[in-house]
Amino acid sequence: MNTFDLLKPVPGLRVLVSGAAAGIGAAIADAFVQADAQVYICDVNQQAVDRARERNPKLHAGVADVSIREQVDSVVDDARSRLGGLDILVNNAGIAGPTAGIEAIDPDDWERTIATNLNSQYYFLLRAVPLLKETSACPGIIAMSSVAGRLGYAFRTPYASTKWAIVGLVKSLAVELGPSNIRVNAILPGVVEGERMDKVIAARAESAGISFDEMKAQYLNKISLRRMVTVDDIAAMTLFLASPAGRNISGQAISVDGNVEYL
């Protein structure tokens, strides 16, 4: 096989991507479709899912609040039925959570962040791992963490807590599932261009009592390359980890962030 061919995912991979109607998840789903994979996405918003399918009719799709186990069970069952099995799970779904000092965070907001960002990963793993053990197509699990999963993040403690936990989950599962030939890795995006990041910056600016532009400049000054990353940067890393070139990469927390120095 040509060395460059190793960089391409094997055609026909069966892929499930959670939280994939927009943003990073949508870019990942579209990239897998372009790589001739069969892709199933889910998201919490029916209209967003419908728009995703209008944009890319090759997608299979379902609706789920990933913090609810029964809804995750439903979409995994549907994905298995439509795809005929599973080769790659991309545990991407997550929310930003509240921006506030620890003493000002509403307990319901804390619990919702934990449920959506962390518990959902377990719910998908619970159902997907048996399917991955049945395939010989270089099975893999890719979990979306964050640069906040390797650095402290003041005023974003629920979010950061879940992202650190995901790294621990990935490293533990890599050991557990390695004998079954299942690779498990985490991607840690940095400051990603887009509407969601704009909302985070706006909330942080309000909390700090400064303008949006001032807060954005602060974010960029913390990045060695002085630029944000794009959703396509994250999608490219996901494809690499799912390709034959990534067959011996497991248990890793890989930052795609331009080297964020601190938060």
The largest β sheet comes out as:
7 strands, parallel
Straight-line N-to-C gap: 43 Å
Number of strands: 7
Strand proportion, as a percent range, falls in 5-15%
Radius of gyration from the CA trace?
A: 18 Å
CATH architecture of the largest domain: 3-Layer(aba) Sandwich
CATH class of the largest domain: Alpha Beta
Order of SSEs: EHEHEHEHEHEHHHE
**Low-confidence parts lasting 5 or more residues at pLDDT below 50?**
none
What would the principal axes of the Cα set say about the shape?
globular
Biggest sheet strand order reads 3-2-1-4-5-6-7
Your description of this structure?
- The model has no long low-confidence stretch (mean pLDDT 96).
- Helix 2 (46-55) links the parallel strand 2 and strand 3 (60-63).
- With 263 residues, this protein is of the alpha/beta class.
- The protein contains 8 helices and 7 strands, in the order βαβαβαβαβαβαααβ.
- Strands 3-2-1-4-5-6-7 form a 7-stranded parallel beta sheet, sandwiched between helices.
- It is 46% helix and 13% strand.
- The chain folds into 2 domains: 11-190 and 230-255, Rossmann fold, CATH 3.40.50.720; 191-228, no CATH class.
Short synopsis of the structure:
One of its GO terms (molecular function) is oxidoreductase activity, acting on the CH-OH group of donors, NAD or NADP as acceptor. This protein has 263 residues and is an alpha/beta fold.
